[in-house]
Amino acid sequence: MNDFLEPDKIAIIAITRKGIDIAKRIKNTIKGSHIYVPKKFDNSDPTLIFFSESVTDKIGTIFKSHNSLICIFSLGAVIRLISPHIKDKKTDPAVVVIDDAAKFVISTLSGHLGGANELTLKISELLNSIPVVTTAADVNNTIPVDLLGKTFGWTIDNFDNVTKVSAMMVNEDTIGFYQDTGERKWWKDDALPKNIKLTNNLKDLLSDEYKGALIVTDRMVENLELLKKSVVYRPKSLYVGIGLHWNTSSETIINGVTKVLEENKLSFKSIKAVTSLDKGKRVRGLDEFCQKFDIQLQLYSKNDLDKIQVPNPSEIVGKYEGTASVSEASSIAASKGKLVVPKNKFPPDLTVAISRGEF
């Protein structure tokens, strides 16, 4: 299963004895899932969690606290129970419905982003049931616009366009696809859908030939006409190297990194990692910056950085840090790719350089 179907965040709700038996079969396969059962069935079974409130109230609580709900009772009842709590596809949990005889497993809510479709297929295989998936992209075996690159950590820059371009995809309108960085094996089949046309020139997408566009890049897309008909994906391709002092604040780092990205028209969302010198103990400002934006931090020894050839070595840095480059060298070392932004100096206590990883 994908990462968004997290163990300990999957709730199985059963309200009949047959449903409880089905729930146990599922729990044995999906480790870390929990079975919730009305208290009237309490038999001291340690594998079950018994609740005394109404099913209506319990569903409301579980809907807000879990990433996935597996409901073993009628589809109509489930729809009535969850409808007051539904917000949007980006935040709603996956909901899967199974009938009391386990004949059908139905993807009911958040099929793509929430993972209900994937969960449905997994459970139907386990129970030897008929999976019911109705999302158009899956039925027509075309690109799910809202999920493209999700397994690689890509993020969508302009989610407002997803529904519009998804409709174009399903209706087989001609859609242009442009990619200049990021993982290339994002499509599971050998052949792309026939309405997808690849281009190596971003400007080509402005043509009336393309009703919509999918753009995979770490660069800023500034043409407003192009943005109106596009979904822009941000792959994790950039490695931001940072040289700093012990007392450099996280605010200084935020301002410096943001300025460098903006001046070079690169996306903050495409940062894969922040890199720097291992000083022997943690640097508070650097840790705070990475924690604030949930970015991994990669540290390198002086010896490792000395092996990296850089365009702008510094005698002063060598004197104080024991190696002639920190921001450029650490960025190149982590990316195993190419330096795209040489070091920028922010006196007295910060340097920033950026490399792009190879894919």
Structure description:
It is a single chain. It is built from 12 helices and 17 strands. The protein is globular and about 75 Å long. With about 350 residues, it is an alpha/beta fold. The longest helix is centred in the last third of the chain and has 14 residues, at about 250-265. The strands form 3 sheets. Strands 3-2-1-4-5-6-7 form a 7-stranded mixed β-sheet, with helices on both faces. It has a 5-stranded mixed β-sheet with strand order 8-12-11-9-10. Helix 8 (about 250-265) packs across helix 9 (about 285-295). Strand 4, helix 3 (about 75-80) and strand 5 (about 95-100) form a beta-alpha-beta unit.
Question: Can you summarize this structure?
Answer:
With 359 residues, the protein is of the alpha/beta class. The chain has helices spanning 17-29, 55-65, 75-82, 116-127, 136-139, 162-170, 224-228, 250-263, 284-293, 302-306, 315-321, 327-335, and strands spanning 10-14, 34-38, 48-51, 68-72, 94-98, 104-109, 130-132, 155-156, 175-179, 196-198, 212-216, 230-234, 238-244, 271-277, 296-300, 338-346, 350-356. The two termini are 24 Å apart.
Strand count, sense and barrel status of the largest sheet are: 7 strands, mixed
Silhouette: globular
User: How would you write the strand order of the largest sheet?
Assistant: 3-2-1-4-5-6-7
* Helical segment count: 12
Q: Whole-number average pLDDT?
A: 91
Name the beta content range.
Answer: 15-25%
Q: Pairing-aware structural class of the strands and helices? A: alpha/beta
Number of strands: 17
- Reading the helices and strands in chain order gives EHEEHEHEEHEHEHEEEHEEHEHEHHHEE
Low-confidence stretches: none
How far apart lie the N and C ends? 24 Å
Q: What fraction, in percent, of the residue positions are helical? A: 25-40%
* Gyration radius over CA: 25 Å
